[in-house]
Design a protein that fits this description.
six-stranded antiparallel sheet; about 10% helix; 3 domains; about 550 residues; 20-stranded antiparallel sheet; single chain; Jelly Rolls; Thrombin, subunit H; mainly beta; 39 strands
């Protein structure tokens, strides 16, 4: 029987509408399915497994990447593949995460503050955090190392045992302690720490804790004659220390207002500076002078005839790289710092003229493969009108480098909306540390401050010390040099255009051959940053 063309056309149109409707979904802030009116962002399938999500208001990107199993009800149930990116409403990158072809997180994942500064770096192996440890940054550059335990296995070597009187075992994602006497039962691990500042927290299921039965932390534990403790019960809290077998109690049975009987309780200790803070369920219960650190073991203890489970254990080693943000003696007489970039293998560096304008002595610091070296340098050429200066490393210790593995963009033209990034040394001696910092943004105007033709404007977040830092396009090609911002405005950075940089380099003569290695263009952003950071210099002015 022949089917009329009219019905075929109607059916096919309906089929296309149905398919397209299935490829477009609205979600709320939690990633839950929503209607268009209440939607926070919209997800659309582009082709195959490629998806693009955009904010409802502003139409900026929310997500881009591959989803091999896309849930239509809950984004948290998606299975991703390859490199996926999430964005803030401002257009700043929020997270870059990597997944294997089976949808399991693999490799390095990075999370960012909306200012563009790095927030968290996590290395995954087959979906699990490598060694249960990742690194977290504050916006002022302090670094903390985080240890998380999910109790799926005993790779961290908890003290597990089962006897007639007590037991310590891993059970369904928890550590379970049980005792059939009034004696203590405990389990702990060693977590060596380079910093005395730390925070520890875990969730204790207190459903079977009654009367004087106590649970909590033992920490800075060396042996049963040397340790600190924080215990809670339905009757109150105990806080104190044992040193060389002598017990020193700060509080004994003090009422804990935040403790929830027969429920789960989140217990936390923070040691910061000379103070110790003890909290339950997010409410501070007691503060005192901190106890001496006598060991590196941390664990859990149960007193009394009971069973308790512990999960979601977190240990944070606070500020383990930049303890007290001190300045070395060699940096005490530094007047100004800035950034720059090597433009030749034999030690020529370009920066801003205003960075070196007050210099009696110029020093250039280079870091490669974690090794930092300081060299003396001299000014060889400057262009005050365009705020540019070229330095030459003259130190006898400096050895010519191999070919520079980056290139200048062939054309000096810039396009509004194109992605850019900088690497530099903001506030290097004032809290953020002497480690090169990456921030990105978009070109927002082809002219600079008050319409200046020699520069362009971007949304890169900068601070003092970024001056002279290179600006690259997303391919890793040099397109400009940071030279100023506006204090009263967020995410406004001006950069001198490439053509003015080239003109000054040509005036030097010896450095007219510009870096022209193109291999970086096809690398991942992580690889580009690693290579380019080794050419970016911290400039110190005395």
């Amino acid at each position: 029987m022949l089917i009329p063309r009219f019905f075929i056309t109607v059916f096919f149109s309906f089929f296309l509408y149905y398919v397209n409707a299935q490829d477009i979904h609205y979600f709320d802030k939690r990633g839950k399915i929503s209607n268009e009116t209440e939607g926070y962002y919209i997800r659309k399938k582009e082709d195959a497994n490629t998806y693009i999500s955009k904010y409802i208001n502003g139409n900026n990107l929310y997500f881009e990447g591959k989803i091999i199993e896309a849930s239509i009800t809950d984004e948290n149930l998606n299975k991703y593949a390859g490199q996926c990116k999430w964005y803030y409403r401002s257009g700043k990158i929020k997270a870059i995460r990597n997944f294997n072809e089976n949808g399991v997180e693999e490799g390095k994942s990075e999370y960012f503050y909306e200012t563009g500064k790095i927030w968290k770096e996590v290395e995954f192996v087959n979906g699990f955090i490598k060694d249960n440890i990742y690194v977290e940054y504050t916006e002022d550059g302090r670094v903390s190392k985080i240890f998380e335990e999910n109790f799926t296995s005993n790779t961290n070597d908890w003290d597990l045992f089962v006897t007639k009187e007590s037991a310590s075992k891993i059970n369904n994602g928890t550590l379970e302690l049980s005792s059939k006497t009034k004696n203590a039962v405990a389990s702990y691990i060693s977590i060596p720490s380079n910093s005395t500042d730390m925070a520890i927290e875990a969730t204790f299921d207190c459903a079977k804790i009654n009367g004087d039965q106590k649970i909590g932390f033992i920490y800075d534990f060396k042996d049963w004659n040397n340790y600190n403790y924080f215990l809670v019960s339905s009757l109150g809290m105990d806080i104190g220390s044992v040193y060389e077998g002598i017990s020193s109690e700060k509080i004994d049975g003090m009422y804990a207002s935040a403790f929830q009987k027969n429920k789960k309780n989140r217990i936390k200790i923070i040691n910061l500076g000379d103070k110790a803070v003890f909290s339950i369920n997010g409410e501070v219960q007691y503060t005192c002078d901190r106890f001496s650190k006598v060991g590196s073991n941390i664990g859990f203890v149960l007193y009394g005839w009971a069973t308790v489970t512990v999960d979601d254990f977190v240990f944070k080693e606070i500020n383990y790289k930049n303890k007290n943000v001190t300045v070395s003696k060699s940096d005490m007489d530094i007047k100004v710092t800035g950034s720059g970039i090597l433009i030749s293998e034999n030690g020529y560096v370009i920066t801003n003229e205003h960075v070196i304008s007050s210099a009696n002595t110029i020093q250039v610091e280079l870091t490669n493969e974690g090794i930092t070296k300081l060299y003396s340098a001299t000014l060889v050429q400057k262009d005050a009108d365009n705020d540019l200066a070229i330095l030459k490393i003259t130190d006898e210790e400096f050895k010519p480098l191999d070919k520079l593995r980056y290139s200048f963009k062939e054309s000096g033209a810039v396009e509004v909306g194109s992605a850019v990034f900088t690497i530099g040394y903001p506030l290097a001696l004032s809290g953020m540390g002497k480690e090169a910092k990456y921030t990105d943004g978009k070109i927002s105007a082809k002219t600079g401050y008050n319409g200046a033709l020699n520069s362009f404007q971007s949304t890169i977040a900068i601070q003092p010390g970024n001056s002279g830092g290179p600006v690259f396009n997303d391919k890793g090609e040099l397109i400009g040099l940071i030279n100023s911002g506006i204090k009263s405005a967020d995410n406004v950075a001006y950069a001198i255009k490439l053509n003015y940089i080239k003109n000054l380099i040509e005036a030097v003569g010896e450095t007219t051959k510009l870096p022209d290695d193109k291999t970086i263009l096809v690398m991942t952003m992580e690889e580009k940053i690693k290579i380019l950071s080794s050419y970016v210099t911290l400039i110190k002015i005395k």
